[in-house]
Design a protein that fits this description.
By secondary structure, the chain is of the alpha/beta class. It contains 15 helices and 21 strands. The strands form five sheets. The chain has a seven-stranded mixed sheet with strand order 15-16-17-14-13-18-19, with helices on both faces. Strand 8, helix 6 (about 160-175) and strand 9 (about 180) form a beta-alpha-beta unit. About 50% of the residues are buried. The chain binds nicotinamide-adenine-dinucleotide (NAD) and (2E,4E)-2-hydroxy-6-oxohexa-2,4-dienoic acid.
């Protein structure tokens, strides 16, 4: 069925068709129907968006009192919640996610992100004053001072569309920058709605712009290559991150990269078994496994291995999950399901497409899947699937579990389940990741540092760490005459 929902670029405070004359379709992954038609931005449209962002920075937004700016962002948070039903409908239509997840977690968190960052800005930075004693008896006061970085390009993935868009927009705007956002071509709807909320909240035109399209030779590529962009904030695949980093080298623009993961989870026999199964089922299957923090490699102490495999199988088979984001990603997940079998895995459960009723057969459905029996060098244990699946490996010695968990080029997140706090901490400290949860998963305090090591990225987002990326630090050195000291 053809949708008549049309999604436009949002440039300089106005929705616009742009100049490319090109458009593309968004597929509803629940049944394969067309949910929207999107206007693709041309290089000229991207240029207009960057130019508008620059003008806003040099105009009203740049001159605005910080308190006024933060009040406007508070109104943006309220505006998201005032339009929450529109955001929920748009997100579900693009992603096929379960209603409760979008309504109770993702949309409220998007609004909250504005509140969290405006509070951090309001609380003030960690700027230092250093006094230098001068030979003439005077003193120089060195005061650290932060300015907005400038025009920020934010390029987002499809797995948590509004959460990711606002995770980028809230700190960028709170620290006084302007921005151009490029949402994923698979999930453009909620970022587009954000333009309306910005206008209603009274954010000056040009501060927040949205351009739609693909990566290379399209809106994403045009945006990251634009010389008017001062810094690029990217979340997505590692390969794309590498391409974006190359782009950012031209003109020496700063870059923040939140990339993929192949996250391990170590389960000791002394864990709270029921809590571990419940938490691990979530970390493997939540959001159809399409979450960078999700678990794909489990290392389970030998003495509980058989019992654990049966219990996680039962948990997997009772999951209600949405579809993958679309047919292309569904194919990618299924190709890994085939690879697992080619590499000799035992399929504990799943491994294919679930039976769905006739109206949904065109959807991007995949089964929650568990494997055992792969050698550690198997490709399946090295590459990110980004689907609802995991492999379970037994271990006997703690050091072997740590070694296998760390045998990855990625290093985003990990989990350790154990009733022995000292052991759990010791293991957590030994894992090469940006975040490690002990006896839980995905507890996110937005003030904490978030990011990965190795192929999982560069830089940290969250709390005061977002300030580092979104501001330029300068030193203002005032030389006081001896008489005034
Ligand atoms: P992707 O890299 O394919 O696309 C992300 C965005 O980059 C899209 O908007 C896309 O259009 C754009 N893009 C692609 N090529 C580009 C180019 N050459 N120049 C500029 N822009 C370009 O990622 P995805 O498939 O949307 O998301 C899934 C991936 O994202 C997974 O690997 C996942 O682990 C990762 N991810 C990481 C985090 C994190 O915080 N570490 C969070 C969410 C997703
Ligand atoms: C990636 O898929 C998940 C990202 C999550 C966050 O950025 C977060 O802040 O929780």
């Amino acid at each position: 069925m053809m949708s008549n929902r049309k999604i436009l670029n949002f440039i300089d405070g106005e929705y616009t068709e742009g100049t490319s004359g090109k458009s593309f379709e968004v597929i509803n992954p629940v049944d394969g129907s067309i949910s929207a038609v999107v206007t693709e931005a041309s290089a000229a449209d991207v240029d207009r968006a960057v130019t508008a962002a620059r003008a806003a920075l040099e105009g009203e937004w740049g001159q605005m009192a910080v308190k006024t700016r933060l009040d406007l962002l508070d109104a943006v948070a309220d505006g998201i919640m005032a339009h929450q039903q529109d955001f929920i409908d748009a997100e579900i239509s693009d992603t096929g996610k379960p209603y409760g997840q979008v309504a109770h977690m993702e949309i409220p968190r998007a609004a909250d992100q504005f509140r969290v960052f405006l509070k951090i800005v309001a609380a003030g930075g960690k700027n230092e004053i250093i006094d230098t004693l001068l030979p003439d008896g005077g003193v120089a006061h060195n005061r650290e001072f932060r300015k907005p970085k400038g025009v920020i390009a934010a390029v987002c993935p499809w797995n948590l569309p509004l959460v990711m868009a606002t995770w980028k927009a809230a700190p960028a705007l709170a620290w006084g920058n302007t921005m151009v956002l490029k949402p994923s071509e698979e999930t453009p709807s909620t970022a587009a709605l954000l333009g309306m909320v910005m206008n209603e909240a009274g954010i000056p035109k040009g501060v927040f712009n949205v351009v739609h399209g693909f990566g290379e030779n399209s809106a994403g590529g045009f945006l990251v290559a634009h010389p008017g962009v001062d810094a690029i904030n990217f979340t997505g695949e590692t390969r794309t991150g590498e391409a974006i980093m190359k782009s950012s080298a031209v003109g020496l623009r700063d870059v923040s990269l939140e990339l993929g993961g192949k996250n391990p989870c170590i389960v000791f026999a002394d864990c709270n078994f029921a809590a571990a199964i419940e938490g691990i089922a979530k970390s493997c299957f939540f959001n159809c496994g399409q979450i960078c923090l999700g678990t794909e490699r489990l290392y389970v102490e030998q003495s509980i291995f058989d019992k654990f495999v049966v219990a996680l199988k039962n948990a997997a088979e009772s999951q209600t999950i949405g579809p993958a984001v679309g047919p292309t990603h569904q194919k990618k997940i299924l190709s890994y399901y085939r690879l697992a079998e080619q590499e000799g895995a035992t399929v504990v459960t799943g491994g294919g497409i679930p039976k769905v009723n006739e109206a949904l057969v065109g959807g991007a459905w995949v089964q929650p899947t568990i494997w055992t029996g792969l050698p550690e060098k198997a490709r399946l244990l090295k590459e990110e699937v980004f689907g609802p699946c995991c492999h379970i490996q037994p271990f006997v010695r703690e050091e072997d579990a740590i070694r296998m968990a760390n045998d990855s080029l990625y290093g985003l997140a990990a989990c350790v389940w154990s009733g022995d706090e000292g052991k759990a901490r010791r293991v957590a400290e030994a894992l090469n990741v940006g975040v490690c949860w002990i006896n839980g998963w995905m507890v996110r305090d937005l003030r904490t540092a978030f990011g990965g090591v190795g192929m999982s990225g560069i830089g940290r987002e969250g709390g005061i760490y977002s300030m580092e990326f979104h501001t330029e630090l300068k030193n203002i050195c005032t030389i006081m005459s001896p008489a005034t000291v």
